[in-house]
Amino acid sequence: MMKNTVILILLLISGLLPAQENTVEILGKTNVNTFKCTNTSIAKPAGSFSSETKLPVLQLKVADFDCRNKMMTNDFRKILNSEQHPHFTVRFIEFKKNANSYYSAIVEVKILNRKRFYTVTFFENKNMLTGNETVRFSDFGIVPPTKMGGTIVVKDHLELTMKLKNL
Q1: Which domain holds residue 116?
Q2: Which backbone phi and psi does 80 adopt, to 5 degrees?
Q3: What is the largest CA-CA distance in the chain?
Q4: Which residues contact 37 (CB under 8 A, 6 or more apart)?
Q5: Which SUPFAM superfamilies match (predicted)?
Q6: Which residues pair with 132 in a beta bridge?
Q7: What is the pLDDT of residues 88-139, one digit of tens each?
Q8: Which residues are within 8 A (CB) of 75 and not within 5 positions of it... i.e. 6 or more apart?
Q9: Cβ contact 122:105 at 8 Å
Q10: 65: closest CA among 100, 40, 43?
């Protein structure tokens, strides 16, 4: 009886807590392994996906990314020079519906004061927009890092995944 009561309370509490609305993940590979750095501390951006005049801009704190490994998280922050460039941004330039739940967006990604434009396809499910795009370290003038005297080499390609509440 007590066990059922605890489970019921936990279910009620979890229903009251706000679900994580916005997430940005960066997935990369090395010649040995894969890594994923996630930022779930994204404030609700100003703007709306339904507004042609004021589309959202995501201001991402580099220090808020977590790679689930302290050393890797520190390396990630160092690669992105978080002390001199504490933020990077994803600015929506264009956002339009293609068909059913698919959207096409042109986004500007700014890292280390370098801007690159990408066309990203988003899919909407349960009022959440999910899109991913391949970016490269080299797009932003970053040489892919190596570790252990070059034994471990990080690949240039990264997958940038955005999961955003449809504003």
Answers
A1: 20-165
A2: -90, 10
A3: 61
A4: 25, 26, 28, 65, 66, 67, 72, 73, 76
A5: YceI-like
A6: 161
A7: 999 999 999 888 889 999 999 999 999 999 999 999 998 899 999 999 999 9
A8: 67, 145, 147
A9: yes
A10: 40
